[in-house]
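S1.2 Input.
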Amino acid sequence: MRSKDPAKESTFHVSFGLHRWSNKENMNSSMFPSLVFLNLSLLIFTNGVFGVETEDVWGMEGDPVTLHTGFEKQKDDLIVWYYGPEKTLDVQINGKASKTIIADRVAGRVQVDGQTGSLTFTNIRTTDSGLYNLKISSNNRVSYKRFSVSVYDHLPVPVIIRDTSQCSSSSGSSSVSKCSLLCSVLNVSHVTLSWYKGNSLISSISVSDLSISLSLPLEVEHQDKNTYSCVLNNNISNQTKHLDISQLCQPCAGTSEMILVLYTELISVSHVFNKCGFKSCNNFIIT
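S1.3 Output.
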């Protein structure tokens, strides 16, 4: 039973094998004239997907990604690529008519292998993520294959900042005071954010479908000599930011120390503007 719509395609196949076997040496032929074995294999495909394995494919936005058919195309074969749950036609290769149809959704961004019918996205987008169903009609025989495509954005580098609201010390000793840190990323999905001490995982947080901002805290001592890093990763890539304790984790300054720092910075700014004038200082960077 065959249908043009792969969503309605179903196949019912039954094969019987009859084998006659008799053992004249060990069995009484009058009692066991023959033994008949019935081999029944029943294969049911429902909606064109039951029994069809799904191949997972990952890619980064802008990269080339190929969906391989694993098939060598014959002259009169009909190859059709469908996209999404609605099975929208993306590409149709009609060997008998020597004609190839490419939908507007992927026009100019895909290439079709003339030997195999494999589909290559030359510049894949995150919106290309989803299910792709392949139907190959060859010599009165229909084959199916399915791909689950996931396309990821390029990952940002995590940002590590000191959480000054948590600035505290133990017994008034700056040598053992704690440094509270936050590692953050903005507008990410399908990622995991983690803190590592050397190669050992300390903590992590994950997000799946939602595009949100993530933050993960860490508390270390000012004099800690271990190496720490914050890692953002998905299935195919990662970004790492290493923690510089000596730079971010200076002992908490008191009120008088903070006033002195601010006063010094104001004097520096005043000196710069007196020296070069406001208009000529547009590109001057104060560090």
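S1.4 Remarks. The mean pLDDT is 75.
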